[in-house]
Write a structure and sequence with these properties.
mainly alpha
């Protein structure tokens, strides 16, 4: 399972309030890169 943004905070017990919205775009982009790499190596 791959999670990002507020779902990652919830999955790992972190706080869901505060300055997280700026990090959500970075988290989403990082996850997209990870998924892309996994898809490329999975042939």
């Amino acid at each position: 399972m791959l999670v990002t943004g507020m779902a990652a905070n919830n999955a790992f017990g972190g706080p869901r309030m505060g300055p997280i919205f700026g990090g959500m775009i970075l988290s989403g982009r990082k996850l997209a890169d990870i998924i892309s790499l996994k898809a490329k190596t999975r042939t």
